[in-house]
Structure formats: C-alpha cells, structure tokens
Fold each of these.
Amino acid sequence: MDSRIFVAFVIGVNFTVACSDSVNADNVINDFEKTSGLSFQNCGTVDLGHCLETLEFVENRENVLQCLVNSSTTCLAARGKLSRATVEGDPIFYTYFIVPNDKGCSVVRFVDTTHDDFGKHKVLQYSCDKLTRSADSCPPLSECGTEPEEEYQ
C-alpha cells in the first residue's frame, strides 16, 4: 500500500472517530423543543461575527434580539439562534428558548461549543427568569445562568 494512501486512511479514521464521539447539538436542541410540547415562534438566526466594532452593522441583528427580548417580556414561546466567532474564527452557537410555564416564563439557553477546535466540544444548557439586552457582552443579551443545568458531551 502506498504510504500516502495509508496516512490519508489513518487521518480519515481518526477524524471519523473524533467526530462521532462528540454530541450532536441539533439533536439535543430538537429533543428539548419536542419534549416541551410548545410551538415556538421563530425569531430567526443571526451571525454576530467576532462581536467587535462592526457589531452594529450585522444584518438582521436587531430583529432577532428584539424578538427574543419582547417574547421574554410578554412570555410568548419563541426561539432564536445567535452565533459568534472565537478569536480563531470557530463558531459558538447560542440557541435561546422563551418557555411559558405555570410560574410565568423562563429562558433556556443552549451554548454549543462543538465546532470550537480549542473548546470543550460540549452543549451546555442554562436557564434564567428573564432575558434583557446587554451592550457589554457578546452575544448582547443578559447572561442566562452562571452554572450549566445540563452538559451534553
């Protein structure tokens, strides 16, 4: 066997094994949505890039953020997805759910680091009572819980 083919085969096998061991974030998020039994308004998706000085020029940014904040205020079932890039350019995805319940409303936030080459390759689930705008953070929404309620690996 040609040594180049063998090296390519070994790299391919290692890549496949490494990828198959990581959690599928879409499955985690879709399972949450299905088990909630709610119909969520889709606030949309926005890529915030590196969240630097060009943030105000990101197309559709205000629509998605305002939809999530308004839904949290009015306790309307909604979902929205934001992404931002790490310093190296790898995407981190944030999926927010506004969930009406018998106590009012809660916010569930999933943070997907499975595409971050230097990250932990996890999906973290947080929750809080309300979502607000925060100009000092990226994404520009209030932190939703400091400790994850669930970690999916």
Amino acid sequence: MSVSLQILEKPILKKTKMNCDGVIDKSLLEYHMIEDCFSKTNFTIFIGKMGIISQPNNSICINATNSATGGQTNSSALYINPIRAYASSTPVLAYNITTKEVTYNSSSIKYKKNVIDLTGNSENLYKLRVREYDWKSCGTHYVGLIAEEAYEADPNFTWSNDGEACGIDWNNILLYAVEEIKKLKKEILLLKNANPTI
C-alpha cells in the first residue's frame, strides 16, 4: 500500500509503506521530488499518485487516477477525481456556503420546526428568464438562469453569499413548480366541471 502526500511550498511526495503485518514501517519511508506532475504552488495538498496540472495555491486534490487532474488553475478549491457517474440512492451531498461544511440533505420532520405551507407566490416562476450563455473561464455554452435575475423574480430562487445572489436554488424552484402545478390542476377541474365537453 502506498499513500502519496504533497503539502506546503515544495512538491514533495511522501510515500508511506507498510510491512507484511499491515503496520507502517518508518524505515521504509521514501521521499521523492516530483517535477513533472504540476507546477510548484504554495500550501497545496494532494492525495494519490498525482495532483493537478498547475495546481492552484491553497487547494486540495484527491486523485485516484493514474494521471494529473485538470482544473481551474487560478481557483482555490477541493478537487476529487474520479466521481462515480451514477448514484443509485440518496442522500445527495451539498456544500453549505455559510459553514463551509459538506453535508447531506435530510427532509425528516425530526430536524424541523415552525412547519407551514408555502407562503410565497408560486406564480413567480413565470418571471424567470431562461438564458443561453458562455462560461468565461472555459467558453463552454450553457442553458440556465442568471442568479441576479432569479433573485428579482423571487429571493427564494437563489442562494446568497455575503448578501449577494450567487447561485440558483433549484430545489426551491422545483417546489414552487409543484405548488403551481397543483393550482393549475384545480383550475382545469373547475373548467371541466363548468363545461363537460372540454
């Protein structure tokens, strides 16, 4: 078993080997300079055989592949490669922008209080503007929403950081859509009852 760790200012790999009993043998510690994996950066950590090509400062990479991982070269972040393409069960992991924790979502009543029906106007969905755009850093073309515009439609449609709308809260949009569909169904039933030929 071999674990590689690169940390702080110099790209040094520390390979820790275990003896036959599965115990780390300090006499088998090996240190190797890596010059061809990525450019030198400050305060970086990677776990695995290789890190990130031009790994940015203040970043962590967990890489279980046999080649260096590509990434945003100017972004301090957590990089994980590979991620399994299909999850057959929930929960889904989420990042809390306030606490900086990685957590999983739960909907159990035991975690909640002050439970009431939706008070927001589900018709705010119709104010959303679906856009096409190119991502600045990579040029990739996307279809989506603009956080600032979605916030104007309804603040519940976005998540914020330091009071600024930064991203789309797709879960809230979905739940607003559920309420709007229920309203539309009631209206359809009323129309059918008023005019059975519909």
Amino acid sequence: MNKKKTTVVKLMVSFVLALVLCLGTAAPAFASDDFSTGRNGNDAEAAITKILTIPAGMVTPVKDYVFTFEAKTVNGEDATSYNMPDISNRTIQIKTDSPSTIDAGGNKVVTVQSGNIFAGVVWPHAGEYVYEVREDGGSDPGYTYSQAMYEFHIFVENKNGKLEVVAISAYKKINDDGSPDNSGEKTNPTPDGGSPGSTVSDVKYNNSYTGTIGGTDPEEPGAHVLRIGKMVVGGYADETKYFSFELTMNVPNAGAGSTYRAFVVEKDGDNKYKVVTGEKNYEGSLGSGSSIPVSATGTTCTFYLKHGQELVFIDLPLGTKCTVAENVDARYSPKAVKHIVNENGVPDNGSVGVNDIQGNKLTVGPFFISEAVSPAPSTVNYTNTFGVISPTGVSVDNLPFVMLIVFALVALTGYVVFRTRRTAAKAGK
C-alpha cells in the first residue's frame, strides 16, 4: 500500500514538474489588440503618429519632427554597445497639405503617421529588446512640444533558422505634458490602425502651435493684421459723418477678460498712416482716446468711423475668428468688399451689398485671421453711396424714371388732343 502511494506521489510530482517546464519554455502569446504582430513570416511593424493642433484657418506650417531611441535592456540585461543595436533618429514631416480635421473646439488637427520605425534594424540575437522613444522637442516660438515617452518592447525569436520580429508592444510612461503615466496599459503601435476603429498607430505625440502675426507700430502698413475701412461716395455724401460698426472676436485659447487693442488710422501721405485721436471714434468703448480694447472672448465692441478712416489691429493671433457689421443708415446704399479667409479656411475676395442687409446690419463674417490672405493684411472695406441731389430737387438717380413718366404724359396728352380734334372734325361734316 505504501509502495502504491509512493508511486502515485512520484507520478504527481513528475506531472507538476513537466507542466512547470512547459510553461517556462512556452513562447508568450500576443493579443492582437495590444501588440503589433508579424504575419506569414513577415516581421511585426510599429509606427508613431504625430499630431499638430493649430488655429483653424491657419496654413499648416512645414516642419520636421525628430524622434530619438534610447536602448534600455535586452532579456532583462542593461543595454551595451554590442548586445543592442543603435537605432538612428526617425523623422516625420508635416506639410501644408497634410491631412487634417476640425475638432470640437474649432481647431485644425493635423495628423501624420510614420513608416515602420524599426525597418532596417539588424537584431544580433533573439530576445526581448526594450527602447525608450521620445520626441526631440525644440524652442520655436509659438510651439508646445510633446514631452511624451513610450517604452517599446520588441520580441525577436529564432524561427526556421532566422531571426523574426514576432511582436512589438508599447507602454506610455510619460504624458504629453510631462506628467507620469502610471496606468501600465499597453498602446498598440500597429501602423494604419492600432485599436479598433483607428486608422493610425495609437502611439501619439501631440504638439500645438499658436502664432501671432503683425508688428508693433499702427502707423506702419506692414504691421497691420486686419483693416476695416470706411468710405462714402456721392456729390452730397457727408464726409464728416461717423458711421457705427460692431466687431466680435474670438481669439484661440484667450483667457477670461483678455483684450486686443485696435487703432483708428487715416492715410498720411504715400503708404503711411497716422493714428486718429478724435473723441467720436472711441464713443461707446473703453478707449483711452488712442486705441480701443476689443474683447478676445466674443463680447461685441462698438466703434465709429468716418470717410477715409480705418480700424486696424497689429498683433492678432492666427486663427482669431472675427465678425464685423455696419449699422446701416437708410439714406445710404452700403457695400462691403472682402479680402479675407472665410470660416471654411477658403480665401474670399467677394462683396456684400444692400441685398445682404439683415436686421439693419451689413455683416461680413465670421472669418479667420490667416496667413493664407495674400497679399496681407485681411481687409473689409465699407463704401456707402449717397443719392446725388440736383438743384431742382430731383435726384439724378431717379431721373430716368422721371423722364419715362414725362414722355408717357406727353404721349397721352398728344393722343387725347388728336382724338378730340378728329371727333370734332367728324361732327362738323
């Protein structure tokens, strides 16, 4: 009996040892939702995705983004110059025509995916290789660079007499803002769609750009970012009359209470301007008499212009959304000529007129402050036409209609006289 028990115990121990050995030598199983895996003897591939968020209406800047690889371990051993290959930097270029979408906040989101970042790497032997991948950020004005770091695990096996990359996984260790990511979750680096529904690698580095264009001197035309002009035409048009305008602006990422200053200017010789300090221009605003603070967060500002004057901005951020409207005077026929980039990001050099008046306002916009305006700056020029009055009190604008009426009356009178005489002649016979 004891001998029988001993035999059973030995068999159980042998089974457990065999199971442990099998588990210890079995190749790891890779779930496709978490890893990039090889297919049909081809190496697994990995890509990274570069995302740039810029103001809507802005031309996508051409720029190279560089990524560095730091060797960490292979099979748990620290990297050396001979046990891990040195992987050179990879570059992703964003171009003006790179694919983009508009996000919920109205920003333009440009997305570009790399090729296989481990293409051409010669692995010295089988094992699990670990690399840290970062973006080599810069200090270019207006840019916020990603501080994210991903840890890549590359699994290389001996297969059919050669080395094969059977799987690649990635773990996000540092977020874009530099804070640690302690989730421990895998990120799928598969090119053209890591997770279900995705069309790019889930390894993403997010950058943003907010630029300001313009200058510092409102009297220099080259410093202007936006001009809103006023003209009147007609022999009896009042060139001293001030017309009322409303302007609404939304500046990207503007904080509460933020404002941008606008200046009223007039032409002062060839290609030169002077700032106007007339009190009427600043009526209804908080202006100091030399500039107008315009809300950056959508509060409407009222300003006044007379013939030959313009409201100009010199330092607006790209992507600022603007809407301007003139309060129409019934004695004038208004027209506004545009040289802008509309809310769809398309240059617009058209015009609006009397048929576009709504609620007694002739409105242009919304439109964006954009580098796509050529030549700069963005402009909206309002021209009001006053009907010319003749000394006889008859408007020359109405003269054709008056003459038609006169001719009709003369013809009718002649016909009546003719009929009367003819009737009288018949009666005398």
Amino acid sequence: MTTASFSVTAKVLGLESLQAKMYRLIGPEGKSVLKAANAKSAREFMALVRTACPRDEDEGGHLIDTLEQTDRGEAGVVVSIGREGGRFGYPLHLEAGHKTKSGKHVPPKPFWFPSLRVLKKRSAGRGNRAMKQVIRRVVGTSTTLPEGF
C-alpha cells in the first residue's frame, strides 16, 4: 500500500492590509510592546535550542555557534541556525538521521522542531496577550473600533 504525500499552501486574502491597519491602530508604542513579546519568545527558543543542540567535540566547530536572532519587519524577530554556503547549513541531517559515506547509519538527534513544539503555544499566547493589551489601551473600554479600521 502506498501513501500519497502532498502539501497545501494557503494565502490569506487581505492580510497585508489588515496588518497595516493594526499597525496604524496600535502606533509605535504598540509595535514596541509586540516586538518585546516576540523577542522574549525568541530568547526562550534560543535557550532551549542551545541546550538541546548536538555538539561535535572532535572537530571543534559547533553548529550552536551559528544560532542567531535577527529583527524582521516592524514587530517580528527571527531565530536561525546554520549559515548559507558556510560550513554549517541547516542541520536537517541531524534532525532526521542520515547515512555516512561508508553506509553507516547515524541516528537522529532532533533539537530544532522539538524545541519549537514545546514553546509554540506559549509564544503564541504571549503575542496574543501583548496585542490585546495594546488594543485595549488604544481603544479603551469602547467596544467600537476607530474609524478606518
């Protein structure tokens, strides 16, 4: 029995305009609150990856040394590991396991995706709470949104 595999990509229509309206609504103060929440989530994720990432004591170079956090957009933060074109690329072979040139099986040592799964809900909740806090501050106790939203 064979199983078919496929992927589905969905684009949310109007997402860019919704984000632009939200950023206009919350202003620079709100963006800084969201960025702080995202940065805290990124730091937690980096700390967890740092503890779980396998290290090669024989060769001296460590994949963990390539772990970095960069800002993206107005309120986003990105965590990446590995360097494009460098000695360390994204380490999928470590996550999933691989065979060496001699044919020996190297077992998987997952560290990236398990860390992501552990912190996904906490990070999403932190972002949602920050956004709600900013919106409440901007809108106040009113249940109607400002004009143009």
